[in-house]
TrEMBL record:
The protein's name: Protocatechuate 4,5-dioxygenase beta chain
UniProt xrefs under SUPFAM superfamilies: LigB-like (SSF53213)
InterPro entries: Xdiol_dOase_suB (IPR004183)
Keyword Nucleotidyltransferase among record annotations: no
Keywords of this entry: Dioxygenase, Oxidoreductase
Originating organism: Thalassovita gelatinovora (Thalassobius gelatinovorus)
Domain Extradiol ring-cleavage dioxygenase class III enzyme subunit B: 8-272
């Protein structure tokens, strides 16, 4: 049976993609950010997951304001990024796992989550940057797993509640664990943390709230579901609603997790950048 071994979180700022392309790992601006990843690399080198469920939000490449599904799951054999105007280079296709995708989609619908299934889905920086951060060299890395993108709406209101996001993750866990093949799965919760890119509060970062969320999500994610959508915008910024994807990830890990690593650095491109490694119970 499929086994979820842990969850990883990271910001997916497009500027990170450029920093990776230009190998700016030791640049004074970027070094504190990239220094947060070696413990995650060591864990991935040890456990070598077969599949990464990459939970992100599309920023207008695959979907736009005229058609924005609340939850969409990729069901393709591969995924390709395209030019978004950020200067991030186009990468080779990321291999998918269509068989597992359809099993998950079937399971989520059976558990009463309405899913948009995507047999074609261009992926943006929200998907590609985490893959490059966690698997150095990405396509040149022999351990890079097959990937399944799950897109959540954090752009066009009304967006899901934090409770709905956590419940999605719980249903995702059941859908994955019912898959009959013996594979190891890691869940990526990407985006955030607090940031606002426009309006009167452009440049807004809330370190205190980010720290609170990074603490509570480990052992008490249910407490975070008390935060309303409007409160989330107020405390995390208009784009900080991406914390929804962290909650989706956390729901998929089960009740008990061990926090093996976390890093927080500000600012990276006007964003509070958080990284976490959460290991599921029973993982050797």
């Amino acid at each position: 049976m499929a086994k979820i071994i842990g969850g990883l979180t990271t910001s997916h700022i497009p500027a990170v993609g450029n920093a990776i392309a230009n190998e700016m790992y030791d640049d004074p601006y970027w070094k504190p950010f990239f220094d947060g990843y070696p413990p995650v690399w060591e864990w991935l080198d040890k456990h070598k997951p077969d599949v990464a469920i990459n939970i992100y939000n599309d920023h207008g490449l695959g979907f736009f304001l005229d058609k924005m599904p609340t939850f969409a799951i990729g069901a393709a054999h591969e995924y390709v990024n395209e030019d978004e105007g950020w200067g991030i280079p186009q990468l080779p296709p990321f291999p998918g796992d269509a068989k597992l995708s359809w099993h998950i989609i079937e399971g989520m619908v059976a558990r009463e989550f309405d899913i948009t299934s995507c047999q074609e889905l261009p992926v943006d920086h929200g998907f590609t940057v985490p893959m490059q951060l966690f698997w150095r060299g990405a396509h040149a890395n022999p351990d890079m797993p097959r990937a399944i993108p799950i897109s959540a709406n954090t752009v066009q209101h009304p967006i899901p509640t934090l409770k709905r996001a956590l419940d999605f993750g719980k249903a995702l866990r059941k859908s994955i664990e019912s898959y009959p093949e013996d594979i190891k799965v890691v869940i990526l919760g990407t985006g955030g943390l607090s940031h606002q890119l426009d309006g009167e509060r452009a440049g807004f970062i809330n370190r205190e709230f980010d720290t609170y969320c990074m603490e509570k999500i480990i052992d008490d994610p249910e407490e975070l579901t008390k935060i309303t959508r409007m409160e989330l915008v107020e405390k995390a910024g208009a784009q900080g609603t991406e914390f929804l994807m962290w909650m989706m990830m956390r729901g998929a890990l089960g009740d008990n997790v061990k926090a093996l690593h976390k890093n927080y650095h500000i600012p990276i491109s006007n964003t509070g950048a958080g990284t976490m490694l959460l290991e599921c119970e029973g993982v050797d």
